[in-house]
Amino acid sequence: MSKTTLCRYFLGCNSREGFFTLFPQFTRPAAGWRCILIKGGPGTGKSTLMKKVVRTAAGRCHPVEEIHCSSDADSLDGVVLPHSKVVLLDATPPHALEPQFPGAVEQPFSLCDCWDTAQLSAAREPIVALGEEIAGLHRQAVRYLAGAAALLGEVRQLAAAALDREKIARYADRFAARELPDRGHPGTEEKRLLSAVTDRGCILYNETLQTLCPRLICLEDPCGAAAAELLARLRETALQRGYHIVSCPCPLFPNEKPDHLLLPELGLGIVTSNSFHRITTPGRAVHAQRFTDGDLLKSRRVRIRFLQKTAAVLLRQAELAIAEAHTRHDALEAYYIAATDFAAVEALSDRLLRELDGLL
């Protein structure tokens, strides 16, 4: 490989049901990953360590996945190194992980010994107050997201009633016949979040699509029903026919609605574009209206527009709550930064990098 393949994703986000995380997929023994579980306080060097790992792996032209934090999109929650099956994860709340098979699957790595515990203990009251305030702001964001999801769920139901599912099935069959010949064995699946509601608004990593998917099928679907139906069919077929896929669920409905399906080995992606996450990467557009009873949907247009506009207002309030939580988190970090011996953090980080040197 002549240059680094760098992809950006999220593995966790606020959703209508609270915080949703995909971290545990890496700690399943059968998955075969070596998991470095990083423990430490806010601002004490976890993200900085992971950025060092990214630079080292990138300097050696290895593929790298940066896992960004949805509460602070400039910070990292993880690094995935597919070539060596090594993953580093911020194993602190809200995506806390504890080793179940220490040494065999997970390797705990703690920066906690680099604190001045007495100094932090002396600041107990403001630290606890800030932590509780941050948690409250995230609960507020989840309430707004739940409201938006309820409205957008109704939009999807209205659109679903107008779907021609036979047309979707025929399109999926033709697509599979052309692009997905049967390999005679089951496929494999990884899950990532390509988008999330963050402190900087709704972010979708279009650059990841540019990196992995030179061929892009862009499902233009303002209501979400047709795209979800088609993606579910194509996902099932791809797995039945032996392909490795990256499934990207909707951050609002992560347990029920697919948003994007990536097949990196084919350089192919099938993605959903709408007003909440616009796909800017060039690709072939497939419009949802080709699978829809236009007259029936038109009769519901006023209701749908109202629901979408109201949902957009609620999503904006969720973004503002997450942004305010980030501001308060910065204040919390200040206490930990002042109490941390960063020379000790650097020494520990460098030791870990030396241990992993042959795998980076």
Could you please describe the fold and organization of this structure?
This protein is of the alpha/beta class and about 350 residues long. The protein has two domains: about 5-115 and about 340-360, no CATH class; about 165-290, no CATH class. It is about 40% helix and about 20% strand. It contains nine helices and 16 strands. It has helices at about 45-60, 115-120, 125-160, 165-180, 205-210, 225-240, 295-300, 300-340, 340-355, and strands at about 5-10, 10-15, 20, 35-40, 65-70, 75-80, 85-90, 105-110, 190, 195-200, 200-205, 215-220, 245-250, 260-265, 270-275, 285. It is globular and about 70 Å long. The mean pLDDT is about 95.
Question: What structural category do the secondary elements indicate?
Answer: alpha/beta
Distance between the termini: 14 Å
Proportion of strand residues: 15-25%
Morphology call: globular
Spatial arrangement of strands, main beta sheet = 1-5-6-7-4-8
Classify the helix fraction into a percent range: 40-55%
Radius of gyration: 22 Å
**H/E element order:** EEEEHEEEEHHHEEEHEHEEEEHHH
**What's the count of strands?**
16
Tell me the domain tally.
Answer: 2
Largest sheet composition: 6 strands, mixed
Unreliable spans:
none
Number of helices: 9
Estimate the mean pLDDT confidence.
95
Q: Key terms for this structure?
A:
360 residues; alpha/beta; 2 domains; six-stranded mixed sheet; 9 helices; 16 strands; globular
In short:
The protein is an alpha/beta fold. Helices cover 42% and strands 22% of the residues.
Question: What's the arrangement of secondary structure elements?
Answer:
Blueprint lengths: L5 E5 L1 E4 L2 E4 L12 E6 L6 H14 L4 E5 L7 E6 L4 E5 L15 E5 L6 H6 L1 H37 L4 H15 L8 E4 L3 E4 L2 E4 L1 H7 L2 E6 L4 H16 L3 E6 L8 E6 L4 E6 L10 E4 L6 H5 L2 H38 L3 H14 L5
Parallel strand pairs: 1-5, 4-7, 4-8, 9-13, 12-15, 12-16
Antiparallel strand pairs: 2-3, 5-6, 6-7, 10-11, 13-14, 14-15
Helix pairs in contact: 3-8, 4-6
